[in-house]
Design brief:
Butyryl-CoA Dehydrogenase, subunit A, domain 3, seven-stranded mixed beta sheet, single chain, Nuclear Transport Factor 2, Chain: A, 294 residues, alpha+beta
Length: 294
């Protein structure tokens, strides 16, 4: 087998792994795909004949690409977003999407990704690589340009933040029942029924992007969130069930069939503790809705 063909084969064997690494680092499938493509370009220009562990080499390259992207994000923003919902992964509600399972394994739901968005780039890299993919701190240290002890401290700080993320109920059927009850109550304008499915301290994040300044919002508390849900009721007839990062969710389409918003729910002990809404037209246009019809 020629060297180019061998490299292509080995890269394709690792593509799914690299995509999973990049998605956890960036919270965006489109950016993750760009990072993986950049990794391929770097591989194709490199002499790796002396590399003993090509998978580890590719992982390190992907991590460096993602780290640069995270740092450039911060430089581009004059002020951090008050509300930012990562780009979700949509899949059929039957739970049989193999690609989805590979990318969002290890319980990387929106609740965890939202917390990861608050971390410094080096903290996020250290946590993702070590805690999610088992990369040794010695290798992480080389990527971030710090000592292994410092890399361990980065991951530890990140771990403390991530522990605060809500852990959804494992029973997907229960999740769906709760979300269906929420949707039914919103459609019927039943305020009391909404309160019954919402945790008293529920948090709603609505990310509408930067097209309409001030349109994004963070809402806390069952009464305030229930009021927002009643405003959502006019869109409820256009909602369809979907898995959003492996958890029960909703995709709302407009009258042309284009996505208007994606709602991800975090259900804990039978009540909704977080609702993450992506309504940014630019990022919604990049979502692959075809997977819902396959």
């Amino acid at each position: 087998m020629k060297e180019r063909e061998w490299l292509t084969q080995r890269f394709e064997e690792n593509r799914s792994h690299l995509r999973a690494v990049a998605y956890r680092m960036l919270g965006s499938l489109s950016e993750a795909d760009d990072a993986v493509q950049e990794t391929w370009l770097r591989l194709s220009r490199s002499d790796v004949t002396a590399v003993q562990n090509l998978r580890a080499w590719l992982t390190a390259v992907t991590a460096r690409v993602c780290l640069n992207l995270l740092r450039s994000r911060r430089l581009r923003r004059e002020e951090p977003w008050d509300v930012h919902v990562p780009e979700p992964i949509l899949s059929r509600d039957d739970g049989t999407d193999v690609e989805r399972d590979a990318v969002i394994a290890d319980s990387v739901g929106l609740a965890v990704l939202v917390v990861l968005e608050t971390l410094a780039p080096a903290e996020r890299l250290a946590f993702v690589l070590h805690d999610m993919f088992g990369v040794p701190f010695e290798e992480i240290a080389a990527i971030v340009g710090r000592s292994p002890v410092s890399a361990r401290q980065l991951a530890s700080r990140a771990r403390r933040r991530v522990r605060g993320a809500a852990v959804p109920d494992a029973d997907l059927n229960l999740q769906r029942q709760v979300v269906d009850a929420f949707l039914k109550a919103a459609r019927g304008g039943d305020f009391e029924a909404l309160l019954r499915v919402l945790d008293p301290d529920v948090v709603l994040r609505a990310d509408r992007g930067d097209i309409r300044p001030g349109a994004s919002r963070l809402v806390r508390g069952a009464h305030a969130v229930a009021q927002q849900a009643l405003e959502f009721s006019r869109f409820a007839p256009f909602a369809r069930p979907a898995l959003v990062n492996g958890a029960a969710g909703i995709v709302v389409l407009d009258d042309t069939g284009r996505p208007f918003s994606v709602l991800g729910f975090t259900v804990v002990r039978g009540t909704i503790v977080e609702i993450d809404i992506l309504a940014d037209p630019t990022r919604l246009s990049q979502l692959n809705l075809a997977v819902l019809d396959e």
